Amino acid sequence: MLTEAALQQSNVGTQLLTRIAGFTGFLHANGYGVGAADSVDIVGAAAETGVLDQAILRWNLKSLLCNRYEEWQRFDALFDTYFLPPNIKVFVQNDVKIGKPEEPTMGDDAQSNDSPTTPENTKTDETRAARYSASREENLSSTDFSELDQADQARKVEALMRRLAKRLKHLKLRRELRSQRGRRLDLQGTIRQSVSTGGTPLKFAWKTRRRVRPRLVLLLDVSRSMNSYSFFYLRLARALCNELADVHCFIFHTRIQSVGEALRDPDPWRAQERLNVLAQGWAGGTRIGECLQDFNREQGARLIHSRTGVIIVSDGYDTGETALLKKELGTLKKRSRRMIWFNPLLNQPDFTPEAKGMQTAMPYLDLLAPGADLAAIERVLPQLIESLQ
Amino acid sequence: MDDIAGLQGQLESAGYVAEASLAATLLLTLDLGRPLLVEGDAGVGKTEIANAFAKVNNARLIRLQCYEGLDVHAAMYEWNYQRQLLAIKLLEQDDRPLADKEKDIFSEAYLLKRPLLEAISCEESPVLLIDEVDRADEAFEAYLLELLSDFQISIPELGTVDAITRPLVIITSNGTRELSDALRRRCLYQFIEYPDFEKELTIVKIKAPQAAEQLARQVVAFVQQVRRMELQKIPGVAETLDWTAALLRSGITVINEEGAERIIDTLSALIKTRDDRSGFTPEVVSRIAATC
């Protein structure tokens, strides 16, 4: 086996090391969260264990460079592509596509960038160069949902959504309160109280965990104008439903329909099928007012209490009666603690809330937030949940 | 390649069947001194790796079981308040200067070492198993990162405690919460799949030597089939072993269609939810048994 010293002395050794170090670049181009520091690590590890045995090199690099299961699964194919000579130019293709025609997202060998330069290619290359660091989140979370058309990206955004939901889950457990009774002795408090009795702790202070159960009610507009967004909002709803205990989700355009059951289905494909069935056969047009009326009449009293946050996702294009919408929003507002409205169109520079529904709704909302990308949602949701405590 | 095979052999004699790739990663853990993050479904033997690895290295195993609400006091250190209060009372009659008394009260004698502090203050480097790190909250993960990068713990009243020896750290996660990228980047990574037929058979042979060769084969074939079914809770390796024991206990030596009724009685060792259980009708069981 080659040792580090031997490797550094010979020219062949240098080439070998460069080749191995270049592997991180290749993985990064393929969406792995690896950075330059990892190159140093793998060269070190390669020098330590030798590079001549393919299996050992593969296992070592795999455990060093993979950070999560998806990466673990794809690693072997990428390793072959990079290190086995005839396949260097092989593109690893996406499997499924959503909507628009598919383009290969995977970059080629990081060292020989001679693929035909289509506009799309240059764009991804630029963004890639701009963030040659070990972070892959920034970019996707601030991409407009309607621009995410590749299955690969959609999956990643879903993963980000799950992470967001998981973070939200932990928001509520962090605080402990001092209280008269509790399950844990608060020693600092006890000692402080003992000052008045000359250092003898006669009275105990206790700590108890602050338990809050905020409830979220999601009302998602799935009408045609929301087409490119509702897919992602349903994904987000699914992630939230799975992580938080008390989330209730409804979809509406001309009718309103609970989708909590379908979203909680553990099998993502079946969930999607069930949603399709639920949304089928609806006539066009959005009647937000009527839907809210139905909701208030049938679900409102049961679902909405003083720690409920209502989240409406819609672009506000309403074909129903304004007066009705006004009345129902008023009812909803009175019942709930917070009412916020995500409007995906708000991000667009020339946006003014012209849509009739939007204008009617403005006075009743606690917050009107842009909701076209995950970052925007992430800015709002934690505060919303905290404000419900 | 030789040392990998060697480690595999050692692990096996410690009761753990490891693939070559896992053995290679464990060797790398030793070489680089980095923590190893092990992920995989429940019941694939993640925790067992640490046990076997400790046995192989003749090291002590220090285990920190994470749970929701785990805090620094339970994981790193805590002052022994009761003893301190007692000492304060006793020292009241003492004429030494106040600073000395205070130093006395905040000395190591009153420090309760919790797993993390214990792991870095061992004379010989132990194996530190941080089990199910995803159950602890993110604040704890940040503390853990500090420990894993510097191998030192700062105790405000006492100063910084540096590691005497570096523990071999193995972290397991079940994926109930996404771990931070920072933690993932500090660790080597290994994903453990459900074992394939051959591997599981070896495990059964090692762990349940009293089962006959034919029964072991049938048990493993049966479990492998069950894993392919749509279940809420897929049985892990531990369940396979439990079930083998249950079969032996009720005197079943062969799995076949005729014995379906008796097999069903033992399935409580393998199938752990009511919904899953209701799927195992005599017909289903005898159909699976027929293919074993």
Summarize the structure.
Chain A is of the alpha/beta class. Chain A has helices spanning 4-9, 11-29, 36-49, 54-65, 69-83, 119-130, 137-141, 151-171, 187-194, 227-243, 260-264, 268-279, 288-303, 322-335, 356-361, 374-387, and strands spanning 176-179, 184-185, 206-209, 215-221, 247-252, 256-258, 308-313, 338-343, 367-370. Chain A is flat and about 80 Å long.
Overview of the molecule:
- The complex is a heterodimer of chains A (389) and B (292).
- Chain A has three domains: 4-135, no CATH class; 176-209, no CATH class; 215-387, Rossmann fold (3-Layer(aba) Sandwich).
- Chain A is built from 16 helices and nine strands.
- Chain A has helices spanning 4-9, 11-29, 36-49, 54-65, 69-83, 119-130, 137-141, 151-171, 187-194, 227-243, 260-264, 268-279, 288-303, 322-335, 356-361, 374-387, and strands spanning 176-179, 184-185, 206-209, 215-221, 247-252, 256-258, 308-313, 338-343, 367-370.
- In chain A, strands 6-5-4-7-8-9 form a six-stranded mixed beta sheet, with helices on both faces. In chain A, strands 1-3-2 form a three-stranded antiparallel beta sheet.
- The longest helix of chain A is centred in the middle third of the chain and has 21 residues, at 151-171.
- Chain A is flat, with a radius of gyration of 27 Å.
- With 292 residues, chain B is α/β, with parallel strands linked by helices.
- Chain B is elongated.
- Chain B is built from 15 helices and nine strands.
- Chain B has two domains: 2-67 and 124-149 and 164-192, Rossmann fold (3-Layer(aba) Sandwich); 197-291.
- The model of chain B has no long low-confidence stretch (mean pLDDT 88).
- In chain B, helix 10 crosses helix 11 and helix 13 (260-266) crosses helix 15.
- Chain B has a five-stranded parallel beta sheet.
- Classes of the chains: A alpha/beta (389), B alpha/beta (292).
